[in-house]
Amino acid sequence: MIGDGMGIAQITASMYHEGKPLSIERFPVTGIQQVHSADNLVTDSAAGATAFATGSKTNNSALGLNERLESVPTILEMAEQRGLATGLVTTAPIVHATPAAFFAHVPLRGQYEDIAVQLTQSGVDFFVGGGMKYFNQRSQDQNDLIEIMQRSGYLISSVYEQPFATLQPNFNQKFGYFTAMENPPAFSAGRDYLPFASRTATRFLERASDKGFFLMIEGAQIDWGGHKQDFDYLLSELNDFDLAVREVLKFAVKNKETLVIVTGDHETGGLAIQPGSTQDSLIAAFATDYHTATMIPVFAFGPGAGYFRGMYDNTDIFHRMVRALGWQ
Ligand SMILES: [Zn+2]
Fold first, then answer.
1. In the chain, what are the domains?
2. Is 223 annotated as belonging to a binding site?
3. Does residue 278 have a known ligand-binding role?
4. pLDDT digits (tens, 9 = 90+) for 42-61
5. Which of 132, 189, 218, 289 sits at 20 to 30 Å (Cα–Cα) from 233?
6. What is the pLDDT of residues 116-125, one digit of tens each?
């Protein structure tokens, strides 16, 4: 699970602000990762998520490529090949950098229409996110990718047809749900699907294959709050992400065979809690409206969690997941 833009300071702020324990306090294993990209000390989400997804460092903006810009297999593709069920849930467009790093191979993260085509070819079993217009209002061709996916066996729906909570995905049929034409709303503007979609994803994927599943869940807008230097936005998104982590943890405690990893791809905003803060009133300062190079915590729970102890590079998250999955 990836909290985009979630560094130590964001977690600290949320703990003080909410005055209640975060779900990650229940994770027995903690690690810390370095997140620089191949061409920059300060990574973007494309290079950061590519490092988790493929084990390769790449340049900022590149997805699913190594630093020589050659295509490299992603953990989601490897899971598909091995017959596991796969899923992606995000509060960003589904073609946005973090989810796209798990199925797309393009040099520029902004190639949203190309990324949409690659999603249709990925074999992913379950996805929820925004960005519907890159599928059915395309400028580079007139293809209706939603129709194409439906013909290939997907049940596709959207917020414009049916609320997510009223849908009953059938685990015998691949499932996709669009939450917006472009960006899903902020939690504070009424978005409420992340925890429920995370819960639905675990239930769906558990039944979709007897070989297990790989699921990536992204709380994308923690990062957007940091870019806007909007502390309330950041905190409400982090809190929503925490609710999603709780849902997955509940599943993992019951299921006993699920490894849950929670981390961020980078920190956003250079957030600091200032002197004079109290628990009721935090005084926050931002050092930048972009990402920083600070190290990022990793929390792990379940079988194989021990692999995530210590200090390592972001690419090691991929290698350690592969080891934990027993694929080596
Ligand atoms: Zn960002």
1. 2-325 (3.40.720.10)
2. yes
3. no
4. 999 999 999 999 999 999 99
5. 132
6. 999 999 999 9
